[in-house]
Sequence to fold (130 residues):
Amino acid sequence: MVNNGYNQYLRSKIMTASKAELTLMLYDGAIKFCNMAIASIEKKDVESAHTSIKRAEAIIEEFMATLNHKYAVAKDFNNVYEYLHERLVEANLKKDPEILEEVVHHLRGMRDTWKEVMRLTSGGQKIVAS
Fold:
C-alpha cells in the first residue's frame, strides 16, 4: 500500500516536471543505477549488476536520442554520451566496479553542471536544448 502511494507520487512528479527537471532526474537515475550495479558486483550478484547497468545504458541512449542537433554543442554531448555508453558496456562485460565509478564521476559532473544551468535560468524554464 505504501509503495503504491510512493509510485503515484513519482508518477505525478515526472508528469509535472519541466524538460530541464526531467533531464536532471535522468542524470540522477543513471547515477543511481551505476551505484546499484557497483553494490551488486560487490555482492557477486551478476544478474542484478547486469540489470542495473542496462538501465543506466538505456538512460544514456535516451540522452543521445533526444539531443537537438541544430545546436553545435550537441555533437560534443553525443561524443561524451557515446564514451559513457561504451564504458557501461565494458563494465557490464567485465563486471568492473572501477569503470562504473568512472562513469559515475562523469555523470555527477554533468548533473552538477546541469543543476547550475537550471539555477541560472530560473529553474531551467529557459533551456531549449539538452
The chain has five helices and no strands.
